[in-house]
C-alpha cells in the first residue's frame, strides 16, 4: 500500500496526483531557459562575478535536470507517457550522462525498501551523522572538481569494461555510486558534448568547457551531495515514513541554488511517489493542516539539515 494512504484519503490524493503536459513543458523550458540565460549573462557582462554566477546557476539546473529525470522515472513529468519517456531520457538524463531506464529500476527499489537493509541508497545515508571535518573535506573535493573527475573516469571505465555485458552492467548499477549514471555511455556522451558544442557555437569556443563541463564537475557535484544528505542523512533507519526521510524547508535563494523543482519536499514524495513535484507544496500544506507536521521530520532549512548530519 502507498504509505500516504495512512494519512490521506484517495479523494485527497487524486487531485494532487493529476499530471500535466503543460506543466511538464514549463518545467523543461524553465530549466533550459535558466541555463541559456546564465550563459547570456556572462556574454553580455563578462567579468569574474557573472562567470561565477553562471557556474552556480547552471550547476543547480544540472541538478534540476536530474530532478526532472527523477520525475519522469515516476511517470509524473508529463501526462502523456511517450512524451514523458522521450523528454525524460533525452532532454533531462542524457545531457548529464544519466539514463532514465536504469535509474528508474534502481530508484523504485529505493522506494520499496527505504532505509532498510535492502535499500540500495543506504550506503549514502548510513554514514551520517559524521564529523564537521569530514563534511568539509567532501565539500572541498566537490567544489574543486575532484569528485566529478573521479566519478566521470569511473563511469567511463565501467562503460568500457562492461560493454555488451548486460548482466554485469545490471550488477554495477545497483551500486549507489553508479546508479545515477548512464550504462551505455556512448549514447549519452554525444548529447553531453552536443550541449557543449551548442554553447561554443553560439558564444566563444570555450563556452562549452566553462559553462557545461565545469559546472558538471563542481557545483553540480556539491548540490547533488547536499540533496542526498538532506533527504535521508541522519534519519531513522526504520519503516516509519514520517521519520526515515526528511523534508527541508527552502526559501527562494535555496530553491535557486541547491533545491530546484521542489526537491526539498522529499518526505511528501515518499508518501505518494507519483504526485508531480509541483503539487508537493500543496500536499505538505495538507499534511500540516492535519496536524502531522509535529510527527514529520522537517528541517527549517539546509543549514539545519546539514547540521543534523554533522556540519
TrEMBL record:
Biological process annotations from GO: lipid biosynthetic process
Keywords: Membrane, Transmembrane, Transmembrane helix
GO cellular component: membrane
Pfam family, one: FA_desaturase
Bilayer-spanning residue ranges: 24-45, 51-73, 191-214
Molecular function per GO: oxidoreductase activity, acting on paired donors, with oxidation of a pair of donors resulting in the reduction of molecular oxygen to two molecules of water
Location of the Fatty acid desaturase domain: 48-287
InterPro entries in alphabetical order: FA_desaturase_dom, Fatty_acid_desaturase
CDD domains: Rhizobitoxine-FADS-like
Domain of life per record: Bacteria
Record-linked PANTHER family: DELTA(5) FATTY ACID DESATURASE C-RELATED (PTHR19353:SF19), FATTY ACID DESATURASE 2 (PTHR19353)
Protein name: Fatty acid desaturase
UniProt organism field: Sulfitobacter sabulilitoris
Amino acid at each position: 500500500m502507498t504509505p500516504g494512504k495512512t494519512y490521506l484519503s484517495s479523494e485527497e490524493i487524486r487531485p494532487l496526483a493529476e499530471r500535466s503536459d503543460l506543466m511538464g513543458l514549463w518545467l523543461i523550458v524553465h530549466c533550459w531557459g535558466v541555463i541559456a540565460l546564465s550563459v547570456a549573462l556572462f556574454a553580455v557582462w563578462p567579468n569574474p562575478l557573472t562567470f561565477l554566477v553562471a557556474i552556480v546557476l547552471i550547476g543547480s539546473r544540472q541538478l534540476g535536470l536530474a530532478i526532472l529525470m527523477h520525475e519522469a522515472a515516476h511517470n509524473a513529468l508529463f501526462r502523456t507517457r511517450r512524451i514523458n519517456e522521450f523528454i525524460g531520457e533525452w532532454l533531462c538524463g542524457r545531457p548529464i550522462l544519466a539514463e532514465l531506464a536504469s535509474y528508474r529500476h534502481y530508484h523504485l527499489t529505493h522506494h520499496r525498501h527505504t532505509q532498510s537493509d535492502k535499500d540500495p541508497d543506504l550506503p549514502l545515508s548510513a554514514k551520517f551523522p559524521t564529523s564537521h571535518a569530514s563534511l568539509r573535506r567532501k565539500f572541498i573535493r566537490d567544489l574543486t572538481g575532484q569528485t566529478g573527475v573521479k566519478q566521470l573516469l569511473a563511469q567511463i571505465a565501467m562503460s568500457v569494461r562492461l560493454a555488451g555485458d548486460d548482466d554485469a552492467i545490471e550488477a554495477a548499477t545497483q551500486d549507489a555510486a553508479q546508479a545515477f549514471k548512464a550504462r551505455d555511455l556512448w549514447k549519452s556522451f554525444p548529447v553531453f558534448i552536443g550541449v557543449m558544442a551548442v554553447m561554443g557555437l553560439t558564444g566563444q569556443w570555450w563556452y562549452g568547457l566553462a559553462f557545461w563541463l565545469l559546472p558538471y564537475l563542481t557545483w553540480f557535484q556539491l548540490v547533488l551531495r547536499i540533496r542526498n544528505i538532506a533527504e535521508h542523512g541522519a534519519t531513522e533507519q526504520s519503516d516509519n515514513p514520517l521519520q526515515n526521510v526528511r523534508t527541508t524547508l527552502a526559501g527562494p535563494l535555496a530553491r535557486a541554488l541547491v533545491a530546484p523543482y521542489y526537491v526539498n519536499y522529499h518526505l511528501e514524495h515518499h508518501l505518494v511517489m507519483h504526485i508531480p513535484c509541483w503539487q508537493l507544496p500543496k500536499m505538505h500544506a495538507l499534511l500540516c493542516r492535519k496536524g502531522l507536521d509535529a510527527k514529520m521530520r522537517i528541517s527549517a532549512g539546509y543549514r539545519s539539515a546539514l547540521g543534523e548530519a554533522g556540519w
